[in-house]
Amino acid sequence: MEACPCGSGRDYAACCGQYISGEAKAPNAEALMRSRYTAYVKGAIDYIIATCDREGDEGIDVDATRRWSEKSTWLGLAIHRTEKGGPADSEGVVEFTATYILDGLREEHREIASFVKKDGTWLYSEGEVVPRTVVREGPKIGRNDPCPCGSGKKYKKCCGARA
C-alpha cells in the first residue's frame, strides 16, 4: 500500500491514482485539487494539462511546469477551505497550500483556486496566489546598535559586515 501524497490518508490507487490514470473522474473540486497536487508529486504533467480549462487559456509552459514538478521535493498539501464544488455544483473554490523544497529553499504556494465542471468533468479554471507577508521575529538591529553576538562592537563592524 502506497500512501497518497495528497494527505488524505488513503491508498494512492484508491485515492488520486484512479483519477491520474484515467480510471475515474474526480467527483468534486477538492478531489481534483488533491489529484493535481499528487500529479505534480508524481511528475504526471499530462494530467495537469488535461485538467485545465482551456477557455481563455493564455498558454501553459509545459516544459517549465515539468521542471518545477521534477526539481521540487514535495512536502505536503493543506486544504484550508472549499466553497461549492460538490457533485451537484458547476463551479467551486478550493483554498490550499502546497509546501515544497526547490533549490534548497522551503516554499509555500498558497492559492485560491477556481474550478468549473464541464460535461461532467471538473477542471481547474484559474488561481489567485495569496501573498505571504514576512513578519520579523525580533526587533530590527540598526547599523549603529551594539552587535547582538556580545562582542561589544557596533553591528555594522561585526556581524552586520558579513551580511
The shape is: elongated
Q: Summarize model confidence as the mean pLDDT.
A: 92
**End-to-end C-alpha gap:** 48 Å
In oligomeric terms, what are we looking at? single chain
Helix content: 10-25%
Instruction: Provide a count of the helices.
Output: 5
β-strand percent reads: 25-35%
- Number of DSSP strands? 4
Structure write-up:
By secondary structure, this protein is of the alpha+beta class. About 25% of the residues lie in helices and about 30% in strands. It has 5 helices and 4 strands. The chain has helices at about 15-20, 30-40, 45-50, 60-70, 160, and strands at about 75-85, 90-100, 105-120, 120-130. The protein has a 4-stranded antiparallel β-sheet with strand order 1-2-3-4. Strand 1 and strand 2 (about 90-100) form a beta hairpin. The longest helix has 14 residues, at about 30-40. It is elongated. The N and C termini lie far apart (about 50 Å). The mean pLDDT is about 90.
Structure summarized in a few sentences:
The protein is of the alpha+beta class. 23% of the residues lie in helices and 29% in strands.
SSE map:
Layout: H1 17-20, H2 29-42, H3 45-50, H4 62-71, E1 73-84, E2 91-102, E3 105-118, E4 121-129, H5 159-162
Antiparallel strand pairs: 1-2, 2-3, 3-4
Descriptive labels:
single chain; 163 residues; four-stranded antiparallel sheet; elongated
